[in-house]
């Protein structure tokens, strides 16, 4: 078993396993980088709202695929449905936050519960259809990377690289937005547009994480790597790089373990690895870990 795991980690266990592990690592990289800005902006729960908001879009896309082609299991179509529904959820959260007196957490809870309820009803309806028994949509909740094809891995990898590139280009703007949005607005920067851009990048990560981590656990892959990276450094650039590395490592190890134990959900294994990296960082991190607290105590 150890030799098999080593082969999986080194992408030598076969073509399909290499595709799955590489696609998962690309997702983890993008989730970690975006998660750094989302964490500092204190919008981690938005990723949870987006994940739940994407569920009815996935279900509607499946129904559309069944009506048009007789099969709804087209990853591109499901991805499009997730993006459309998630975008609507993001816009609703912003509208409730900006045009009512409700706090942001109430807006997130409202959108999350409403969209997820609609998604559950649609999933229940799909199970009653002739094509619904083999839909496999439940795997999208917890991840099923073992069935990832080369085209799907390419789509995930391309989208992940685009997200990372956008974050690299907007590091200065996102940094000021996270640390002092009021000052950014005073400088004339489009704070709302930057907020929307960050939310859309987060939405892209949630959408491409459908196959690997699933809609429910994607929030963990967005949150855990940047928290771990925060324990090691106080510099934004280093934090984003470390977070991306932690996310890629967690997804890489988790996807490899999923190939070794195919009955276990991929998303759960990836999150467990990310949690292990977080615990290690909390213990050993020189910036905000327990070791840093001990050094800062007076003798």
Poorly predicted runs are none
| Approximate shape | globular
**What is the CATH superfamily label?**
ABC transporter involved in vitamin B12 uptake, BtuC
- Distance between the first and last residues' Cα: 49 Å
Instruction: Indicate the CATH topology.
Output: ABC transporter involved in vitamin B12 uptake, BtuC
Mean residue pLDDT: 83
Description:
It is built from 14 helices and no strands. The radius of gyration is 20 Å and the shape is globular. The chain is mainly α. 77% of the residues lie in helices and 0% in strands. It has helices spanning 2-9, 15-40, 44-69, 75-99, 104-127, 139-142, 150-169, 171-179, 181-186, 191-208, 218-230, 236-260, 266-284, 290-296. The chain has a single domain, classed as ABC transporter involved in vitamin B12 uptake, BtuC.
Notable traits:
299 residues; mainly alpha; ABC transporter involved in vitamin B12 uptake, BtuC; 14 helices; 77% helix; 0% strand
Task: Describe the structure concisely for a colleague.
It is a multi-pass membrane protein. By secondary structure, the chain is mostly helical.
């Amino acid at each position: 078993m150890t030799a098999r795991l080593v082969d999986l980690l080194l992408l030598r266990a076969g073509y399909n396993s290499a595709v799955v592990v590489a696609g998962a690592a690309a997702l983890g990289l993008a989730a970690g980088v975006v998660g750094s800005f989302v964490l500092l902006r204190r919008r981690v729960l938005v990723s949870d709202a987006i994940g739940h908001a994407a569920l009815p879009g996935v279900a509607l896309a499946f129904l559309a695929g069944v009506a048009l082609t007789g099969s709804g299991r087209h990853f591109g179509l499901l991805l499009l449905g997730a993006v459309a529904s998630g975008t609507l959820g993001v816009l609703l959260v912003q509208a409730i936050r900006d045009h009512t007196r409700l706090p942001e957490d109430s807006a997130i809870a409202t959108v999350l519960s409403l969209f997820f309820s609609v998604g559950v009803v649609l999933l229940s309806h799909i199970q009653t259809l002739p094509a619904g028994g083999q839909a496999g949509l439940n795997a999208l909740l917890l991840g099923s990377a073992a069935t990832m094809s080369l085209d799907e891995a390419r789509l995930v990898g391309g989208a992940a690289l685009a997200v990372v590139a956008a974050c690299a280009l907007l590091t200065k703007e996102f940094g000021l937005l996270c640390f002092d949005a009021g000052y950014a607005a005073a400088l004339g920067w489009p704070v709302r547009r930057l907020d929307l851009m960050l939310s859309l990048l987060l939405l892209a990560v949630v959408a491409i994480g459908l196959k690997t981590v699933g809609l429910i656990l994607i929030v963990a892959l967005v949150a855990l790597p940047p928290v771990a990276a925060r324990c090691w450094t106080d510099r934004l650039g280093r934090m984003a790089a470390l977070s991306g590395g932690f996310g890629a490592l967690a997804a890489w190890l988790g996807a490899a373990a999923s190939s070794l134990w195919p009955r276990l959900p991929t998303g759960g294994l990836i999150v467990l690895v990310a949690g292990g990296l977080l615990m290690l960082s909390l213990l050993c991190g020189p910036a905000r870990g327990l070791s840093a607290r001990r050094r800062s105590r007076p003798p």
